[in-house]
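Tutorial sheet, problem 5. The three components below are modelled jointly, 879 residues in total.
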Amino acid sequence: MRLTVSRLHAQRSGKSVLRDISLSFDKPELIGLIGPNGAGKSTLMRALSGLQSYSGSIQLDGTDLAQYAPQALARQLAFLPQERTVHWALDCEEVVMLGRMPYQSGFGRASVGDHRIVERAMQTMDVLEFSRRSFEQLSGGEQARVLIARVLAQEPDMIIADEPINGLDPAHQISLMKTFRELVAAGRTVLTSLHDLSLASHWCDRIIILEHGDLIADGAVDQVMTPQQIRKVYGVETMAVSTSGRTLIVPTDLAE
Amino acid sequence: MTRLPYPILLSGLALLVAVLFVISIAIGQVWINPASVLLPGAHGYGEADRLILYEIRVPRAVLALLIGATLGLSGAVLQGLLRNPLAEPGLLGISASASLGAVIAIYSGLTAIFAYALPISALAGALIAVLLLRGLAGRSADILTIILSGVALTSLAGALTSLALNMSSNPFAALEIVFWMLGSLADRSWVHVGMALPFILTGMLLLFATARALDALSLGHDAAQSLGVNLQRTNTLAILGTAISVGAATAVSGAIGFVGLIVPHLLRPCVGNKPSRLLAASALGGAAFLLLADISIRVLLPEKDLKLGVVTALIGAPFFLWLLHSVKKRAQV
Amino acid sequence: MRKAKASVVDFRGVSRLLLVLFLLTAQAALGASPQRVVSMNLCTDQLAMLVAEPGQLISVSHLAVDESASVMVEEARPLIINQGLAEQVIRLNPDLVIAGTYTTRATVNLLKRLGVKVAEFQPAYSFADVRSNLKKMGELLGRDAHSSRLTDMFDQQLQEAGRTAEAIIPVLGSYGANSYTGGGSSLESEIVTAAGFTHLGSQLQLQGSSKLPLESLIYANPDLLMSWQRWSDRQGRAVEILQHPALEQWFGPQRRISVDSRYWICGTPYTVSAIQQLQAAVASKEKDDD
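Model answer (structure tokens):
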């Protein structure tokens, strides 16, 4: 899979929110998308998922995104929106089964294969026990994991997740990042926006920084998340902690 | 909680509809046993019974079935589309606007030239209402905005209907206004069935085609689209389907409220809250509900020609208030 | 074989006769009688036009010039037309206002409070009511002699119409917009009975104008079904019932007759024409049968 973005511009309600973005995703890796509020992270992810109008080009395996049939695109790219509501009190298994929609036709009877994939996805996210439970009755963290299981059931080449760890306790945050790493190990590309710099620095292979709609930096954690860069973009001082062979960037104070 | 398997639920509802249909044609000024009229060589019934059964009661029951199914189905679809349990053609002003369309067609003399002008004009009224609603409420699934828009549309359409009837110097204007706002199936005929049937079936077909998209929409707008759902197409299907089927239904029965509110809500837990499964169940449930309502007005006050909309509102309005209360409470949590 | 004589009176003749009567009695008007009379109700309009001397009645209601309701459109045209609103009536500076007991109640009460003399008329439910209303109108307008002459004429014509009644008495029911049929002790039942038929509403012991579901009508099965000419052909949901297939199949064209509703609305001397027209309409159906 190869997703190429070149000279991407996007507007929301008449205001320019993304300017001249060029990026490329072509191998299994965990990419952290960071930047302060209003940097355009959500818009970029929506554009990559085919949900946002833009100018410039986004190509998936050499074909323009707009040329894809929606279902075909959904089999390659999965999007996990920030919004975590399920509007009707569906059973969790039904929620996860919605991930199989791009593979079903017509009235969409779930095949045996679909059930197996759903079960595996729920197992991966540790929510199999909730299969018959109503989504409404779960805690926030459990709900988040069910929704990620939905994305897994979609079996995409690339997962685009908008702030998936929001509202999760530390254990679930770490377990989610571990899941992402497993997905990468299994050959998928995962792009996720994050506000937590320590998690981003610790778990991601690559970091993309946006600020006011401009692409500021794109590269390996060590090269991109320098104290100068973070100070410039976020206005905070950081310190680097080394743990188990990786560097952890921890914000300490507001910059002078 | 153990839930009935879906095919059994549907069969049960279908059976209920069938039973109510038979009761509906048996009941009237006098009790006619349909079997003994329909079976050859039956005794005790005359030509009058046969005529009354075939020409008055059967078309009435058929219309109750069709219109109830339409209202139940369109309620379920609108709720799924707007992700709002309070959406319903009656409350949103779609039925009232369809009534207005029908009244205009009748009193401008269009129906005298072209019989199908009645359902077409009614569905045009319904279509305008749905489009206006989309425009007024926008993309927001905000309950209050949508309901208030519906209230405004209902009053406006009601006022314009009265205006049109008053302008027509019709000696029966007052009675007609009541009919168009409260609905009735009394003494309809096969002519009305023939007029409404093609539209109702077409509209219902379009509405059923939204089923899968509605499931995806329970995850929200963005997630649905990223799952490969064409939301543009879903919107068009739902809007046209509602306008065509509710428009045609209203053209022959007047505006009947609350069916699309009560029925999907009662059946939702039975189908595990899944919007796609709710559709067929709500269509059958709506048919049963309206048949029951139409039977009850003939049993309770046979002499009074109680309007159908009175019964549905008597049940529906308190239900609506309770639902509004519980939805608000849930929104605050 | 039943045979009904169709003796439809020439209405121009009646009008001319009435005009002569008007002139004869014009001089008899007393000084005390009201000189600016306003009528606000279709039925009192027509009674007043018949009874008043020329110039005495200055205004009638808008229904008096409505072709579908009034028998005396021509006579009403030269007069001022009112919509039954107090403001309008006051401006006419009337010395007597005539109204029906059931119409424009609020206006009547307001006029009374403003000190206008208002006379109220009960609708006529019978021929006796027609006579007493005529008498009352004569007294109010100071035209007693004239009104009693009208009453005599009315009685004479009634008697003549009654003579043509048939030996075998078919049941006749009316069916109008919104499934309404006339009940017993009504002007309708009296007209139908005087024309020599049994009235369905009386037979069913209905009181006043009643809603009769189509099913009940078919079970009641009157020999003849009468509907109102001027209203039935209008567009509207109210009159759709008159084209119901069940109605057409059960009664067919042979058992359905259509009459001119204008003569049935109000009890006036013109009511005799309703009887004559009904007899003629039934007779023509029977002729088709031959």
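Marking note: The two ends of chain B are 24 Å apart (CA to CA). Full credit if you identified this.
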